[in-house]
Amino acid sequence: MRTIGLIGGLSWVSTVDYYRIINQTVNTKLGGSHSAKLLLCSIDFEEFKQALDIRDWDGVACLISGAAVRLQEAGADCVVICSNTPHMVADQVVAAMRIPLIHIAEVTAKAIGSLGLKTVGLLGTKFTMEESFFKDKLTRRGINTLVPNSGDREFINDTIFNELTKGIITDSTRTRYQAIISGLVAGGAAGIIMGCTEIPQLIRPQDCPVPTFDTTALHACAAVEFALQDTNQLS
């Protein structure tokens, strides 16, 4: 089994989910008392957010690349950034290390493509919704991306940083997200991407009228696939 290197703390709330999903999936596939071989480098979320707030992309790249290199030097065989937004600097991270990066948007695009969907809605931080780094991966597979209007984008971004990344879940926020999702579906979205690793804690599949794509679960399962691909027990 290969060792997975996790860059966590982005936020700690979703990092817990990565750890749980990866270990549960390994045990399901291998049975017995098997669990994953993991290394975790957990970042202080405040440092990341401060760089993000002033759009200091070099600072974000330095922070994430530094963590990736530390994981590589500690013996990781791949790196998983446990968050969507930091993939804005994925190219710089890849350039800084020798081991592969499992890209969250590529994994998500593959899952959407497997269902044959051509138009999906994307929820996430304003950076994920407004910048091209995530949407470009979808476009390459012929998938069109819809995002909420500017007011809804601000609401989603605000609740991500002030509620979801702190583990705060409220019915009122869920109701507003559902209304936003309904608008995207009315606009032609045949699926909804939970493009923030905390959103699946708020919006469950039953809360959505179309298929949802949980980037946390998809990413974690892709890491397991990588870790086990050299074993004859992988199904």
Description:
This protein is α/β, with parallel strands linked by helices. The chain has ten helices and seven strands. It is globular, with a radius of gyration of 17 Å. The two termini are 14 Å apart.
Based on Cα principal axes, name the global outline.
globular
Overall helicity: 40-55%
The main pleated sheet reads as: 4 strands, parallel
Number of strands: 7
Keywords:
alpha/beta, 235 residues, globular, 3-stranded parallel beta sheet, 7 strands
How are the secondary structure elements laid out?
Elements (H helix, E strand, L loop, with lengths): L3 E5 L3 H19 L7 E5 L2 H9 L3 H18 L3 E4 L8 H7 L7 H11 L4 E5 L2 H5 L4 H5 L4 E3 L3 H13 L8 H16 L5 E3 L17 E3 H14 L7
Helix pairs in contact: 1-10, 2-3, 3-4, 5-10
Compact summary:
The protein has ten helices and seven strands.
